[in-house]
Structures are given as structure tokens and as C-alpha cells.
Amino acid sequence: MFTDIEGSTRLAxxxxxxxxxxxxxxxxALIREVLRRYRGAEIETEGDSFFVVFDDAAGAAAAAxxxxxxxxGARWPDLGRGNGPIRPRVRMGLHTGEAxxxxxxxxxxxxxxxxxxxxxxxxxxxxxxxxxxxxxxxRAPSLERLGYFELRGxxxxxxxxQLQAPGLPSExxxxxxxxxxxxxxxxxxxxxxxxxxxxxxDRAFASHRLVTVTGLAGCGKTTLVxxxxxxxxxxHGDGVWYCRPGHDFGASLLQALGRxxxxxxxxxxxxxxxxxxxxxxxxxxxxxxxxxxxxxxxxRECPGLTILAAGVRPFELPGEAKRSLQLPPVDVAAxxxxxxxxxxxxxxxxxxxRGLAAAVEGFxxxxxxxxDVTAFGSPKTALRRLRDDPVAVLDAGGxxxxxxxxxxxxxxxxxxAVLLELAARSDGATVDxxxxxxxQRDGSLEALVELVDVALVVIERPAMxxxxxxxxxxxxxxxxxxxEPVQVLPSLAxxxxxxxxxDTALVRAR
Length: 510
Known about the structure:
Layout: E1 2-5, H1 8-15, H2 17-37, E2 41-46, E3 49-53, H3 57-73, E4 90-94, E5 101-102, E6 105-106, H4 109-120, E7 126-129, H5 130-136, E8 143-149, E9 158-163, H6 195-205, E10 210-214, H7 221-230, E11 240-243, H8 249-257, H9 267-275, E12 280-287, H10 292-301, E13 305-311, E14 320-324, H11 330-343, H12 350-359, H13 364-376, H14 379-388, H15 390-394, H16 399-409, H17 413-423, H18 431-437, H19 444-453, E15 458-460, E16 468-470, H20 473-480, H21 490-499, H22 504-509
Parallel strand pairs: 4-7, 10-13, 10-14, 11-12, 12-13
Antiparallel strand pairs: 1-3, 1-4, 2-3, 5-6, 7-9, 8-9, 15-16
Helix pairs in contact: 1-2, 2-3, 3-5, 8-9, 11-12, 11-13, 12-14, 13-14, 17-19
């Protein structure tokens, strides 16, 4: 048997030396009292851990049950920290195997196996090898089989079981030791492959530990990062973890990692402690700038950690590689539109959707907006209506306009001005032309970077020419329509006019 206190270092630093000494000694006294009754020989005690041997497997299991019961039922000191009595959460590992005495201890791989089993347990949990359970004669409901695991440094696999008894908790996260373990959510349907974006992420991670994928809400960032991360399972020995940070980054991360909630009010510190020496990929979805400090802390204190983040905007952290989700190739866009139609019960093929996808340049919010009319009519019908009145078709139901309104509301005033002026140019503009267009305003280049980050402006790189910055055609339709003179639709015009003064004479001249 091996036992130790989960999070003992964090508990000691949180309580202070003297309060922790009181808790530690009380914990030791309770365990030793039980060991005496079951003839457990204490081989080694170091800090908060015990190494104990028994001459009977059933006795070892009974002692484990009684130790956990005693720890839960004991009166623990209230140290006046506002959290009530401080009860240490002890994890336990049991294994049965041959051992040979050596210099007052035992020299055998089975000792190391038992220690690894204990390290895989959570606080209040008793883990054992299936070999021990068989030797002890344990059957359901006294045990729950958890499966086969590889234990670090030991050959082969070990089948682990959880021992349980009335009055003891039975619900725990899975042991954090399964090879290539991950918590990536299962796809409800196969994602459309985006090989060029996958290769771009591969290139970015070759020289960066933090890569952010940015773009409009609903443009496919989540699907992309999950699909790419699944292909990285074999590259990270300590797993791939998917997390939506929400308002409490630390608590969300602990939940994603399968770790218990932090009781000392420092969940991000607990998560850092868990990841500090691990080779893992962390996939953060729906991130915001407010999460930047926690991401920077994780990267600084966990050198083996790499982070792939998806959000509307990048963190703007040192060493961050930014990748905005540009317009997908037409074949990929057609497959995406066919998938949206299939969700609505229409089995149009990617080949049938290709012309319609090309007409909107694969702009994903436009593909989503076209899904209803395509599914309940046909791709040809939708394409004909799109040519007649693109704004009316795209904005049926108002979802497309709402998505654009949300994106525009999140950018700065100068960025809105640049967006409006670029939308008037169907062929796009070079950097020099953007600067010329906006020469009366400061920060125009920064505004252009902002628009590229959120994928409201896409970059085209013609061979042997300067890069062109262009507003996707469906977005131009919504901003200006297709008729001349250019007219800005009222709902968006108010946002632009309130944010910045537009040089309309300059726009008309261009």
C-alpha cells in the first residue's frame, strides 16, 4: 500500500508551517492506528506519504477502506481561515505481487508499480490493480473496473480497479495516465477536412508554443482546431486537453484536465502545478483578451505546454503566432455548404453546391445563411436568387446581418472606417493604397491588422505582386449593395457614422 495527501505542497503553502504540521500529524496518527489493527508493516514514511506492506491482500483492502472512513469521520481542526475544518484528501494505491527483502525494505518492480497506482488516484480514492482485487477476493459492488493503463517507467499495461464501500465517495475523474488521453468532444458528424489550414498550423507550431486562430463567430474555428488537435494525439505524451475558459479560467481548466476543484481558491495555480512538467497540448476555445494573463502564466511556468487558442481576436502576447481563418478553397466551401444542407434533411452533393459556394467565395457566415434556401429549394435556385438580390437572400431571417453587426461592434472606430472604405473597392487595395485611402487618420495600418485578425478583410497574394487586402464579396454586398452609387445599409451606417467621421468625398473619388 502507498498513500499520500493530494496537493500536499499546495496545502502546506496555503496553510503555513504550523497549521500544516497539525493536519499532517493528525493524519499520520489516524493511519497508524488502523495499520496496527490490520498488521500493516510501515516500511517508509516520508513527508505526507506511507509505504506499507501486508501479509494478506484482503487485510490490505480492509485497512484501506477503514483508513478512508477514519479520515472522513475524524474531527479536524478549524484553523480560522474561513473554510471550516481542514481535512486532507488522501489517495491510496494497492497492489499484490512478489517482493524480496533488501536492506530493511523491498527490492522489486512491484513496489514501483504500487507507487504509480497511488500517483494515479485522486484524493479520497482507493485504486488497486486487478491482481490485488483477485487476491483479496473482491467482487462487485466492492470494485469498479477502470480499464488498462500504461504506468510510467513500467513495461506493459496494468488493469486498474477502484475499490469502494458504503459511506465513501465513488465518483471520480478518470485516472490521468491513459496513453494519449484526451477530452476532445466527439464529433456529431465528420468535419470537412481543411488540409491547407492544418498545414499552416503545423508550420506555426514548428516555431511557436502559442498559436491563435481568429475569425468571425460561426466561421468554423472550433471545428478546425478540434480536427487538427485530434491529429496531434501521438505527439503529446501527456495528452490533448480541450477547454472553454468561460468566466473562471482556472476552474474550467481543472475540470477539463479531470482534476478536482481547488478548495483554497487558487484554481489557476492548481492547474499550473498539474501541467508544470507535462508535455501536453491545450486547446482553448472561445477565448477573450481577458484570458491573456492566464495563458501567459501557463506558458511561462509550464515549459512543455503548447497552446492552440480559437477566438474572435488574438491575445497579442509576446511569441504568439496569429492565424486568421481566411476564405476556404471552393471545394472545401462546397463540402461545408453540402453539410449544412444535410443537417436540414437535404442531400445535395458538394459538386452540386460548388457554384453557389464559389459565388459567395466560401465566406462561411454566407454559407450558413444560404443553407435554408438551398436545402428547401436547390443550389441552382439559390444561385439564381442570389444573383437577382444577394442581400435579400443572404439576410433572410436577419442572421447574416446580426453576425456582421456583432463583428463590427467589436472592432475599433478606425477599423470600421477602413472596412467601409475597402468595401467600396471590389478589387481590394495594397498596403500603400490603404494608407493613401486613410491618410487623414492615424493608426490606419493598425486598423488594417485588426480587420485581418478578425477575418473581416482577407489577404490575397498574387504572384510577383504586392499582397491585396479585400473585403469578402458577401460582406461588401451587405455594406454597399450592388447598385451604384454606393449606399450603406442603415443598421451598419449608424455604427460607422457614430464611430468615426467618414471622408465620403474621398470614397466617391476612389
